[in-house]
Design brief:
56% helix; single chain; two-stranded antiparallel ribbon; alpha+beta; five-stranded antiparallel sheet; disordered N terminus
Length: 455
């Protein structure tokens, strides 16, 4: 992946120093080192159990009704031409910076996005942003939804550098408009935190450890703001706590990357980001402790709601998974037992028990790495961005969640040998929630799963 990204805080500070930094037109052709390289990706969807002779079904990556799609495609192309003609007419009368052009260009860009014409969409949307800025000022909030659409196209094109700049620019504009104590900033903090996790997962940038630092600072700030303005019972509080746990898991698995934070330029930038948000979070992110604390808070959150027993069961199981991941087996068993007993108190407990404990489950369940690439997968048939492969695996899972006796049942060919080897290594390193019987983990032999992977 690209190596020329700027960290969250560094970009933010650059914008503070030069708020006109984005007045230049962004590159329409993705830079070579910023374009997604399909060969560098290996994304595995959550596996589906093979039961009996039933062929396991995955969610379709791209649902297409040929007749409807052709009609919609033709209608959108006609609308695109109409908007293009309208833009030309407005420009002929009012000039290149006529205020009304922004709305027409935004509509044009959104239609082009739907047609997967992302370079054309970027050109239209970028021009709409500039017209808004010229007419309403550099920090106008009218540009926000347009920039969000720009980000979508840049990410689909794999232009992570431009996506990174605009994610941080959204943060800059809205923090400038709202201040750092306004509840409207909560969604901004959460969005930027998620982007840093995504950038980490795709490997964009030199200082990946700084991505995790930024994510934890931002998730913590967002959770604190939700608590202050809406209380800890607000569902966004749980969302940000799950974000903290997700980033903590990545920290625990990549501690060697945290040394990057000690570089003077990175440390100073992270301290300024933290201080700006009035956060007490350490700039060197925490792993195990931070994740455990966040997951315990989620358990407490649902324990206070009488009608949230199902959510409490899931949260308790997630905490058990966390303990299992870090070899605290007795604590994991205690959480699984609590969740098992709670299942007896709800109407669909038997069904949930089978889903959660009747088979081994890949953990942690509160992180779905593959979801970061949903749009790429959805566009696979349309743009040939990614290719999908399938493989059936058999393996045992011990009471401590370890994979043993792994076998790949799918025929290995020259075309899939590398992919099967990567999948084999990934599954062998994974930890699975063991089969639970009467509230206690037991060994499960001969588990059959089908995996869909993208490359």
């Amino acid at each position: 992946m690209g190596t020329n990204s700027t960290t969250t805080a560094a970009v933010f500070l650059a914008l503070l120093a030069s708020p006109c930094a984005l007045t230049q037109t962004p590159e329409l052709e993705p830079a070579e080192d910023q374009v997604r390289s399909p060969s560098a990706f290996f994304i595995v969807d959550p596996p589906v159990a093979i039961v009996g002779d039933v062929d396991p079904a995955f969610p379709a990556p791209y649902l297409r009704d040929e007749a409807i799609d052709e009609l919609e495609f033709a209608a959108r192309m006609e609308s695109i031409q109409e908007y293009a003609d309208t833009v030309e007419q407005i420009e002929a009368v009012g000039g290149a910076w006529d205020r009304s052009l922004a709305e027409e260009l935004n509509a044009l860009g959104l239609l082009q996005q739907q047609q997967a014409q992302h370079l054309e969409a970027i050109a239209a949307l970028d021009r709409a942003v500039h017209i808004n800025r010229v007419n309403d000022g550099l920090h106008t909030l009218a540009q926000i939804p347009i920039i969000e659409s720009l980000i979508e196209s840049y990410e689909i094109l794999g232009n992570w550098g431009q996506a990174d700049i605009y994610h941080n620019y959204l943060f800059y504009v809205q923090s400038k408009a709202y201040g750092n104590n306004d509840p409207r900033i909560i969604s901004v903090l959460n969005s930027l935190a998620k982007w840093n996790v995504k950038a980490f997962n795709i490997g964009y940038g030199d200082a990946l450890g700084v991505r995790l630092s930024s994510a934890q600072i931002l998730f913590n700030a967002a959770a604190r703001m939700v608590d202050i303005h809406f209380g800890s019972q607000d569902k966004r509080f749980v969302e940000n706590m799950e974000g903290i746990a997700s980033s903590a898991y990545l920290v625990s698995r990549n501690r060697e990357l945290l040394e990057e934070i000690n570089r003077p330029e990175n440390r100073n930038a992270q301290e300024m980001l933290r201080d700006k948000l009035n956060e007490l979070t350490p700039i060197v992110p925490r792993g195990y402790q931070s994740g455990e604390q966040a997951l315990r808070v989620i358990v407490d959150h649902y324990a206070e709601e009488e009608s949230a027993t199902a959510e409490l069961i899931e949260a308790t199981s997630n905490l058990g998974d966390w303990y299992l991941l870090f070899s605290r087996r007795s604590d994991a068993t205690e959480m699984y037992t609590q969740a098992w007993k709670l299942l007896d108190t709800i109407e669909n407990g038997a069904e949930l028990r089978q889903q959660m404990f009747g088979q081994v489950v890949s953990i942690p369940t509160f992180i779905d790495y593959a979801s970061e690439f949903d749009k790429l997968r959805d566009l696979e048939e349309e743009s040939n961005a990614l290719s999908a492969g399938f493989a059936d695996l058999s393996f045992d899972v011990t009471i401590n969640g370890y994979v043993r006796n792994l076998s790949v049942l799918t025929e290995e060919t020259e075309a899939n040998a590398d992919h099967l080897d990567r999948l084999r290594r990934q599954v062998r390193r994974a930890i699975y929630r063991p089969l639970i019987v009467d509230g206690r983990p037991v060994r499960a032999n001969g588990n059959l799963f089908r995996y869909r992977y993208w490359h």
